[in-house]
Amino acid sequence: MTPVALFELVLVLLAAALVLSLAAARLGLPPAAALVIGGMALAFAPGLPTFDLDPDLIMVLFLPPLLLESAYFTVWRDFRASLGPILSLSLGAVLFTTLVVGLIAHWVAPGLPWAACFALGAIVSPPDAVSAKAVLARVTLPRKTVTVLEGESLVNDASGLVLYRFAVAAALTGAFDAWAALGSFAWLAAAGVAVGIVLGFAANRGIARLRDAEATTVVTFLVAYLAYLAAEEIHASGVLAVVACGLMLGAREHETFDARTRTRALAVWGFVVFILEALVFVLIGLALRGVLTRMGGSADALASGLPLALAATVACVAARLAWVFPAVYLPLLMPWRRPGAPPPLRPAIPLVVGWAGMRGVVTLAAALALPLGFPGRDPILIAAFAVILFTVLVQGTTLGPLIRHLRLDSSGTLPDGHLDASMARVAVNEAGLAVLEELQLPETGAPRHPHLVDQYRRRVWAMSRLRDERLAAEAEREAHVEAALAAVKAGRAALVALHREGRIHGSVLRIIEAELDLEELHLRRFAGDHAGHG
What we know:
- By secondary structure, this protein is mainly α.
- The chain has helices at residues 3-27, 31-43, 55-72, 76-81, 83-108, 114-124, 129-136, 143-173, 178-209, 213-233, 238-256, 259-294, 299-329, 348-355, 361-368, 377-406, 421-438, 450-468, 474-500, 506-533.
């Protein structure tokens, strides 16, 4: 494929991803499912050139920015508080799933070596951060449950890839050293986290000195790739390095980023993440063509891999559910359980956690990275692809209805003593009002800026009323927001009219239009936050 043909193919995939995303929104489907289905359809499109996916390129191109973005928005305090459940899933569940899938695979296909069976288990055991984020973004869950699921998907690749590497080595050499595997995992995790912390600290120091929004945004992308590549260079976990770096950037962004930089960077990152996530799922579907080509393209060859694919899919899903329920409830039966510990979770919570194990790009890349001479490579590819399809298309599609049926929502998830958005707005505006009231004219003692003082007093009064009488003031709030939005719309129309009449310069148009955009976004966010907390 020529470079021009490759570029044309990328444009076709981007256009297809956009159409599929819009169709998914219209049909109420998770975008990930629609994109995978669309990619599978493209795989059989006549005239489409063969597109071989390089597993190393997939990992290094897609994972760093997507992982950094997820880690950046992870609340460190929540992550640390949920570290126990996160490690239980990212270590215990991954190891347990690898063992169960390996045993079932050897039972279904006794001709496969044990090491190859466990390699399959390691390939399909870690849920994928990209898939989890894409699905969880469209469902409503208690805050802690979301933290556990997203935190697990950020760190479990390290354990899965260690098991994968040693299973592949054992299958090719016939030797396995458990102590070497444990030491490798310790180095992978510790060194990866250390690289991420060092680069995150350096990036925060550098960003704090920059005054250019575009340059700062470029730095955030570069540090994501640098963390991944630097860790991989010393044979540490690039995944954990990016996650640690992202957590550090997110924890300090309120001090290091100014308003202009934060607004622009978030806009750029939102665009890039949308493109990368869409391409990832289209490429997963498109990979079916390469898998079938490697299997010889015949129905007999495909059918020969179906029993293993079905067994691996069932074992993968069942193993996660079998791990989650005991992990949640068995500690409650221990006699040394801490007094005053939280009450047992509803069974709905572990059921959702167990069902939310979507696989994606890491599983695909690990399967494609198997050496050509690896025993059972073709059936393993089919099995890995089947697990991805089932978890994305079936679990990802049914997770939302399951949550709604179990009546799980995000209400009541703020810890005791925490303020909601309305109460926080009152505190913020009271602080601003206090500063303005201190600015007085020396001659009379009157406020130096009476209009600002009056404006802030009205804000505090209105927000306090909305907080204390939220239900009674709902109609008034909606009318206020609608009126304010109508005023912004009229102002924007007048601004455009002035420009068309040649009475203002284009640069003035852009400046004032940006101000109106921010005001409109503020009003809509204000209305949305109250709707979500009402």
